[in-house]
């Protein structure tokens, strides 16, 4: 069977093997769909606010433009800066686990995703950027609307929801920048205003706004998915949960195995900038390739017995945060949040259990729960 499955219906070649996906994501000749692609392929939508944002953002730019937008954010997500956030992440996790305990104190089910899974990364990235606690829930709802653009097939309703969200979020973050110019703080919004150095072309006002918008939305959506998926995986594999409870050093490994076993981002697309070969297949310029990250992470060539969830697995390498030039800048922070939450949640509730049928998010591109009902006592 050809390693690249050509789908005429979706106009793309699907890659599912780990090595092929890693090669595709790291290949400079395969680029993300960008503004020029949008103008050519999405003529009906190219003038929409959501398309204007998405296809000129860091997620959808290539080469020097991508590096120029990525550089100031990368300076914020250094290993040292992320490590310095540990105490703050743990404090937020404690606060939210307390809230979950109160909601579950009557013995009935409590929605972990609403009470902890989403609020934790929203609070962490909100504080990193400079968003007040009182405004985060509203902004998070807008962010979910904006992520409809990640779906491989977008309906008119998806575009309308994304347009509304982008307009509102752009207005909000433009106001944040105005406030930081008047009164700088120790946050990303203020730091971005200081990044206009001689080593690069200055970022425009719209670019500054869109960086804040992207960091906020990307900073909570996939991490929220990861937290719920990791908790679910452990609860449905009690033998593995017992290992994690017995050895706190396994918490990061449990997060990594959850990322491999049930990735929060299912797939991502690339477009050939020139004729090239990938996965043994010749691609003409303009050809679309979709790397199915969830399948790559379960490739038995890379991870033996891939359908088994094992926290003691060695040699794990995941593509859940992509690879190459577009590797997720927030990967280390997401892993930190996952390990901190697993420790606090399962230490606090020795008899934590599922308390009903979970409800998965209605999405092809993103894996998450809308409702993950848990009981604090078995």
TrEMBL record:
GO terms for molecular function: metal ion binding; monooxygenase activity. The chain crosses the membrane at residues 211-235. Keywords: Heme, Iron, Membrane, Metal-binding, Monooxygenase, Oxidoreductase, Transmembrane, Transmembrane helix. InterPro entries: Cyt_P450, Cyt_P450_B, Cyt_P450_CS, Cyt_P450_sf. Belongs to the cytochrome P450 family. PANTHER family: CYTOCHROME P450 YJIB-RELATED (PTHR46696:SF1), P450, PUTATIVE (EUROFUNG)-RELATED (PTHR46696). This is Cytochrome P450. It comes from Streptomyces doudnae.
């Amino acid at each position: 069977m050809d390693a690249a499955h050509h789908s005429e219906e979706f106009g793309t070649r699907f890659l599912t093997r780990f090595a092929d996906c890693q090669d595709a994501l790291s290949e400079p000749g395969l680029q993300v769909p960008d503004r020029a692609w949008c103008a050519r392929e999405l003529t009906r939508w190219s003038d929409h606010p959501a398309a204007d944002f998405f296809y000129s953002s860091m997620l959808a730019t290539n080469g020097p433009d991508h590096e120029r937008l990525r550089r100031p954010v990368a300076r914020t997500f250094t290993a040292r800066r992320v490590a310095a956030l540990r105490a703050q992440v743990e404090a937020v996790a404690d606060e939210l686990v307390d809230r979950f305990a109160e909601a579950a104190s009557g013995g009935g089910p409590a929605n972990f995703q609403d009470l902890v899974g989403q609020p934790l990364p929203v609070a962490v990235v909100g504080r990193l950027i400079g968003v007040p606690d009182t405004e985060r829930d509203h902004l998070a709802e807008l962010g979910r609307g904006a992520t409809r653009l990640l779906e491989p097939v977008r309906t008119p309703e998806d575009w309308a929801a994304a347009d509304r969200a982008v307009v509102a979020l752009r207005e909000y973050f433009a106001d944040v920048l105005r406030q930081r110019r008047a009164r700088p703080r120790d946050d990303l919004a203020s730091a971005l205003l200081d990044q206009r150095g001689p080593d690069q072309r200055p970022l425009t006002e719209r670019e500054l706004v869109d960086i804040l918008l992207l960091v906020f939305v990307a900073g909570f959506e996939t991490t929220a998915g990861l937290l719920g998926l990791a908790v679910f995986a452990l609860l449905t594999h009690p033998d593995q949960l017992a290992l994690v409870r017995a050895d706190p050093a396994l918490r990061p490994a449990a997060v990594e195995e959850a990322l491999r076993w049930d990735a929060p981002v299912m797939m991502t697309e690339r477009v050939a900038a020139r004729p090239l070969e990938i996965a043994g297949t010749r691609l003409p310029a303009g050809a679309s390739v979709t790397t199915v990250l969830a399948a790559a992470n379960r490739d038995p060539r890379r991870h033996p017995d891939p359908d088994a969830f094992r926290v003691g697995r060695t040699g794990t390498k995941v593509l859940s945060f992509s690879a190459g030039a577009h590797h997720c800048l927030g990967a280390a922070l997401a892993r930190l949040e996952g390990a901190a939450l697993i420790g606090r949640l399962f230490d606090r509730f020795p008899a934590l259990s599922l308390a009903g049928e979970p409800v998965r998010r209605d999405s092809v591109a993103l894996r998450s729960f809308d409702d993950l009902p848990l009981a604090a006592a078995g």
